[in-house]
Amino acid sequence: MRSLPPSALAEDSTYTIKQAAERSGLSEDTIRYYEKIKLLPSPERTSGGHRAYRQANLEQMKLIVCLKKTGMPLEEMKPFLEAEPDNPQAYPELYELMLEHRERICQQIEALQQVVSVIDIRLAAGVTKTPGCAVHQQPGAPAKGPKANRTLSQLQQRS
Q1: In 10 A of CB 17, how many CB atoms?
Q2: What are the contacts of 138-146 at 24+ separation with CB within 8 A?
Q3: Do residues 61 and 26 touch, judged by C-beta distance below 8 A?
Q4: Single pTM value for the model
Q5: Which position among 18, 69, 82, 147 has the lowest Cβ density within 10 Å, counted as fewest Cβ atoms?
C-alpha cells in the first residue's frame, strides 16, 4: 500500500471513504466489502492510514451502482471494472456479456409475467378455488383456459 502525505491529498483531488460514499451512492460498509472481495482495488492510504480515493475509484464505484441497477451479480461485474473506460470499443467481449445479461433479464421478466398470469387467474376464479391452477401444470408454464388471457384491468372491472 502506498502512503500519501496530507498535502498530496489536497492537491490531487482525493476523497475520504465518507466522501467517496456520498459521491458514489454506496455506503462506507459496502465500499469496504467490495474492497475485501476484490471487486474494487485497495485504495491508497494517507500517512495516517486512512483510505484515499481518487476520481478513477469513484468512477468504478459509480459503474458498480449502474451495473447493480441492471441486476448484474457482483462476480459478473469484474470484467467491466477491469476495462479501460476511455476505450469501450476495445472490449467487444463486454458487449457480448451485456447482451447475455440482457437475455437472462428478459427470461426473468417472461417468467414473472407468467406468475402475474397465474395471480390474475386466481383473482378471476376466486383466491381459494382451484380452477386454472392445475396440480400437474409445469411451474411457470402459461395458464390455459378462457380466463387465462384476461388483463388485470379486466379483472378489476368485475369489482
Answers
A1: 19
A2: 140/111, 140/114, 140/115, 141/114, 142/114, 142/117, 143/114, 143/117, 143/118, 145/121
A3: yes
A4: 0.68
A5: 69
C-alpha cell read off for 97: 456479456
In whole angstroms, give the CA distance from residue 60 to residue 63.
Answer: 5
Angstrom distances, CA of residue 75 to CA of 34, 68, 84? 11, 11, 18
pLDDT tens-place string over residues 7-53: 444 446 899 999 999 999 999 999 999 999 999 999 999 999 999 99
Q: Which residue bears the cell 465500499?
A: 31
Cβ(105)–Cβ(77) below 8 Å: no
Name the nearest CA neighbour of 3 among 51, 46, 62. 46
Strands 51-52 and 3-4: unpaired
Burial 28-63 (b: 16+ CB within 10 A, else e): eebbeebbeeebbeebbebeeeebbbbeebbebbeb
Cα separation of 21 and 43, whole Å?
Answer: 13
Q: At what angle do helices 28-36 and 55-69 cross, to 10 degrees?
A: 90
